[in-house]
Structures are given as C-alpha cells and as structure tokens.
Write a structure and sequence with these properties.
The complex is a heterodimer of chains A (301) and B (185). Chain A is mainly beta and 301 residues long. Chain A is built from three helices and 14 strands. Chain A has helices spanning 2-23, 28-32, 265-270; strands at 39-41, 64-75, 89-100, 103-110, 115-125, 128-130, 137-147, 164-175, 180-191, 202-215, 218-227, 240-247, 251-258, 282-292. In chain A, the strands form two sheets. Chain A has a twelve-stranded antiparallel beta barrel. A two-stranded antiparallel ribbon of chain A has the order 1-6. The N and C termini of chain A lie far apart (65 Å). Residues 19-24 of chain A have low confidence and may be disordered. Chain B has two helices and nine strands. Helix content of chain B is 16%, strand content 52%. Chain B has helices at residues 2-19, 75-85; strands spanning 22-35, 44-55, 60-66, 71-72, 93-100, 112-124, 127-140, 143-153, 169-183. Chain B has an eight-stranded antiparallel barrel with strand order 1-2-3-5-6-7-8-9. With 185 residues, chain B is α+β, with helices and mostly antiparallel strands. Classes of the chains: A mainly beta (301), B alpha+beta (185). Chain A binds chain B through residues 6-7, 10-11, 14, 18, 21-22, 26-29, 31-33, 35-37, 40, 43-44, 61-64, 98, 178, 216-217, 247-250, 290, 292, 295-297, 299-301, and chain B through 3-4, 7-8, 11, 14-15, 18, 22, 24, 26, 29, 31, 46, 48-49, 51-55, 60, 62-64, 66, 68, 71-76, 78-80, 82-84, 89-90, 92, 95, 162, 164-165, 168, 178, 184.
C-alpha cells in the first residue's frame, strides 16, 4: 500500500510537472539554447585608425584600404596677410590596409622633409565583452621613416642609413562607454642621425589620446605627447592637437588645431616647434576614405 | 519497482512526445535589403545564425537574431549598421514572438506546403511593434521550412536615416526569413 502511494505520488508529480510546463507561456527561445556570443571584440573606439596625429587603438577591417589625405596649414597667428595660415600647407598622403581584425599596415609620404613612412600595427589583445573578456586593447606599432630630401652637405661621406628613423609604440586603450575612449601610448623613437652630437638618438615619449563622442556621427578628439628628452626644449614643444571628427557615409573628416607640422611619429615627436601659449597653432584636417578592396564575403543566397 | 520504472518510462515518453511538437534551428537565415530605388549602392545584409523555434501544437513561433551576426559585402557598411543605425552594443538582439494564426497541428504530420499568417511582436532597436505577415511552412520528412517576406519601416523602430544618405538607404527595409527547422530534442 505504501509503495503504491509512493508510485501514485511520483506519477501525479510527473503529471503536474508536465502540465505546469504546458500551462506556462514557455519561452521557446530559451529551449533552443542561449545564443549570446561568448566573446565579442569592442569596436569603434575611434572613428579612425588615428586619433589625430598618433595611432589609435582602432583597426581597419580586413580587406579594406584607407586612403588618407592629411593637411596642416600655416600658423594661425600669422595674421590675415597669410589668411591665418591657410596660404601655406603641408600634406601627407597615405594608404593603410587592414589585413586581419588585429593587424594592419600602411605607408605614406609627407611633403615636410619629403619623408616616406611605413608602419605595421598589431594588437595581441583586444578589448572584449562576454565571458572571456579583457578590459583594454593592447596594440604594438613599429614604424620607419625615411627622409628622401637631398643631403644637406653632399661633400661629406653620407650613408643612406642616416636618413632612417624608427619608432616603437605600445597603445593601451579602452573604450569606457559609447562616448568615452582613452588611450596611453608609450613610445620610443630612434633617429639614426641627429643634428648635433650632444643630442640623443633615442627619444622617449608617452602619448595620451581620447575621444568624446557627442552625436552618432561627431566626436571631439585630442591627443598629446609628453616627450621626456626633447632634442632642445627651447625650440621644441610637446605636440598637442584637438579637434572634431565628422563621419559622413564613407568619409571621416578630422578637423583640428595642432602645434605640429609633422604628420608622422618622427616628425611630430621630435620636431614640433609650435607653442600653443604663443598661438603657434595650425588648422589642419585628416580626410579618410575607406574602400573595400578584398575579402568580400560571398552571400549564400 | 517494475511498476515504478514503467511509470517513469511512460513519463519519459510523454515528455519526448511533447518535445517533438517543437521544431528549431540555430542556423536560420534572415536577409534584409534597405537599398533605395535607383541607388548605385546595394545596402543589404544577411545573417545565417538565426535561432528560430516553432511549437506546432500551440502555433507559438519565435525567433531571435543577433544584430552583430549580420554580414555585409563591405566592412564599413557593417560598421555603420552596428554603430550608427542599429546600435548593437545597446540593443544586441532583435526578437520576434508570435503565433501562427489558425494553427493546425495535423498539418505538420504530412508532407506539404501551407500558407500561414503569423502575427506577433517584433522587438528591435529597443522598440516593440505588432506585425502580421504571410508566410509559408513546408513540411518534408519531419523537417519544416519556414519562409516569409515582409517590410520593416525603419522609423517604426526609431532607426533614423540622416538626410546625407537618404537617397541610398530606403525608409522601409525588406526582410526575408528562411529557416529550416528540425525537431527539438
């Protein structure tokens, strides 16, 4: 009798459970399993792969090419005779390529000192969300510049290697929210040839950059580099730039004011002569246009 | 003891019978097209990781789409889709929870193709709207194929198109659903 009661009990319990399942408005999607991804890379920390002058923690998508035209006009304090600096212009034209989600390279040429530059940027760690997340992106940049202007003193023995400079950089950045991104970039720059024997070939700097996005398509950006051992602190200053990013369909316009003329790491870290305090600032813009050149995904149907 | 086992077995069978009412997929396809007429640019994306569940007994029909799962021919378009239009960090999923109207469980037992009307709530970009659409469910050897095609007015879901690209992006996107469902075990 006892056994029978127990069996009946189990049976009833089962019926209750089954019915309960029917009675509830079952979340069918829950039955099929959760489809939230485990790990997701945080993207769009910056609109562009550069904050303004310096590299940002952002990468190009694989198979895309970014055509960049950068302009720095003359100093604003030159007055209206020079149209507030707009009479002069220094420019850099460059091409960047996205290879992998975390690997890109690029090259460009600046009119300033007729410099060629190239770099490769790789991020071993990307900021991500999900279960195995990581709070920051860590990216490494290695770059090289080559001065292609004629030798200043052709009579002495010149070496091609004297025209080269190298830089190595780590970018540690975090997109704190949709609106706020900050990054720190310790940098080391080595110049094979410096003007004076007393000057150091190695230059150490730490860069700071950030973005405050205030609408979907506009953001305020700034970047600053503190140089620990400038070649001559009387002449050279730390580069500071601030401006806004405007994104239209396929272009990103970065309009800004900066005290540096140079648009590659060697130039703006070691040869920024403008002083913000004296108004030696320049208006400038970066124009970025991204093209899809490869890696097109084939649509299934 | 034997009786107990028998009852447990019956219970287990009851559960499986119930489970076979449900069909699902995690690799359903959703394609959307927001190309404005005469635009030189094709704006379309597709997602092959759609979760879809149909309870043939009750006619309950639900699907979930991860917005970041949409793929595009052009990477930049995908970025804009996620960042500017769908805001997929804030609203990672689109969901539909609805009902096959005049659901007839017997239909799913034999091979054939049935026109159905599906009605329910679509949640996307943080907005929920009632939608009703015609679709087709084909039954073939115990598997179901659910196909539907319906318009989504972007303004209904507070997805705003800036005037700059208004000639490229349609105000009403066309969505195609194509899900091959298997019995849910």
């Amino acid at each position: 009798m006892k056994k029978l009661t127990r069996i009946t009990g189990i049976f009833l319990l089962q019926i209750i459970i089954c019915n309960a399942a029917v009675a509830q408005d079952v979340d069918l999607l829950q039955l099929a399993g959760d489809n939230t991804p485990k790990k997701e890379i945080v993207k769009n920390a910056f609109k562009s792969t550069r904050v303004i002058n310096s590299q940002s923690m952002e990468f190009l998508s694989p198979g895309t090419m970014d055509f960049r035209i950068l302009h720095r006009f003359g100093e604003v304090n030159k007055g209206y005779e020079n149209f507030f600096g707009l009479d002069q212009a220094s420019m850099r034209m460059g091409f960047d390529f996205g290879i992998l989600q975390n690997l890109m390279f690029g090259f460009g040429r600046s009119t300033y000192k007729k410099e060629l530059d190239g770099f490769i940027k790789f991020a071993p760690i990307r900021q991500s969300t999900g279960q195995q997340n990581f709070p920051v992106t860590v990216a490494l940049v290695a770059g090289m510049t080559m001065n292609t202007s004629p030798w200043t003193d052709p009579t002495r023995k010149n070496y091609t290697s004297s025209k080269l400079a190298y830089y190595f950089q780590a970018i540690i950045g975090r997109k704190f929210s949709d609106a706020i991104t900050l990054q720190v970039t310790p940098t080391m720059l080595h110049q094979n040839l410096v003007p004076l024997a007393t000057q150091s070939n190695d230059l150490y700097a730490v860069g700071f950059g950030g973005r405050i996005k205030f609408t979907k398509r506009m953001a305020f950006t700034w970047d600053y580099s503190y140089v620990f051992n400038p070649m001559d602190p009387e002449i050279f200053h730390n580069p500071l730039s601030a401006g806004i990013d405007i994104e239209t369909g396929g272009h990103v316009f970065q309009l800004h004011f900066s005290n540096s003329t140079g648009m590659n790491e060697r130039a703006f870290l070691s040869e920024t002569t403008g002083d913000w305090a004296k108004g030696d600032i320049r208006f400038g813009f970066n124009l970025s246009r991204v093209f899809q050149i490869g890696g097109k995904k084939k649509q299934l149907k | 003891m034997k009786k107990l086992l028998a009852l447990l077995a019956i219970g287990a069978i009851m559960n499986t019978v119930k489970a076979q009412d449900k069909y699902f997929t995690k690799t359903g396809k959703v394609k959307f097209d927001a190309t404005e007429k005469n635009s030189p640019e094709n704006i379309n994306g597709w997602n092959n990781t759609v979760t879809c569940v149909l309870d043939t007994k009750t006619g309950n029909f639900q699907f979930a789409v991860l917005i970041k799962g949409f793929e595009f021919d052009r990477a930049l378009m995908m970025e804009h889709f996620n960042e500017n239009y769908m805001e997929s960090d804030k609203f990672p999923k689109a969901e539909f929870r609805g009902q096959v109207m005049d659901n007839n469980p017997g239909n799913y037992q034999k091979n054939g193709s049935y026109d159905v009307v599906v009605k329910g709530k679509m949640t996307m970009h943080g907005e929920t709207k009632e939608i009703e659409t015609k679709g087709k469910i084909s039954v073939q050897n115990g598997n179901l194929l659910a196909v539907a095609d319906f318009p989504i007015p972007l303004s209904d879901y507070k997805i705003s198109i800036p005037s700059l690209v208004a000639d490229k992006v349609a105000k009403v996107a066309t969505v195609k659903v194509d899900c091959s469902l298997m019995p849910l075990k």
